[in-house]
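Shipment paperwork, digital attachment
Item: protein structure file
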Amino acid sequence: MPRPAPTPARSHRSLGLSLALVSAFAFGGSGVAAKPLIEAGLSPLQVVWVRMAGSAALLLPVVIRHRDLPRRRPWLLVGFGLLGVTLVQVSYFFAIARIPVAIAMLLEYLGPTLLLGYVRFVQRRPVTRAAALGALTATLGLALVVEVWTGLGGLDPLGVVFGLCAACSQVGYFVISEKAGRAASASPADHIDPIALSGYGLLIGALVVTPLAQPWTLPWHVLGGEAAMGSRQVPAIGLALWMVLVSTVLAYLTGVASVSRLSAPVAAVVAFLEAVVATVLSWFLLGEHLATPQLLGGALVLIGAFVAQTSRPSEPSTVVASSADPTPLTEHAPR
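Attachment content:
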């Protein structure tokens, strides 16, 4: 008996799921590509600049197409570029220079949990018991990841601080994205294309990081040579191109397209696969093995962060996105 043909809605959803998986894989590979470049001689700031400048150049046509955006929402773009893009990436790349990629990613995924603290103590809105349980679960997971009973398990304390800074920066990304979504829902004329917002954020980030990274002093010969990825040597320029083309441009394009086809809860589940991808890739490609307690802690961080992100405050208006939000907060903060 022949199977019924797939409905347009099912095909639409299947395509969204496929795009979300591609986006999670693309984002998850950013740290694995960046760390060998840092170890080959580039500073974390220089790696951030290469990624931002290259991606901004590719997204420049989108920025030009939405050239009215700086006039309409200048402060939102500046805030997104400084906090939601620059500080997230700088903190994350400084973290992976000192601690394993998987642990840095797990630390960053405390962002949704910290977001609940922002909602509860800054905005003074109540949160659900499920959300509080998620925050507690993620905190317990963090203790296992950094092995607090052994004094951070030999982890570089500054690397842990940078990872937590990336998590705090992710809160800013969520809050600013929510403001963009609220403006769009209040007035269609204030709609901000997510790809345009990302393009402007990367462009602003590249301009801000330029005097700090000093690309005119960048050891360009490093990009022309090879970098050690675990026990093998790979072309450094290939890693840089992967960061720009795959871990940024492709990740954003597929991520935004998937969110428009999936509900927010489904997109959130797939988004958390990014940390799993980063852990697996760093394990096999960089030889960064995690102990059993750290793996268990990582699972608790992801479970708690997922509950924290998808559980909403009791009031109708919430920082944590619903599927009706024009700019769902299940999108990734740039890595």
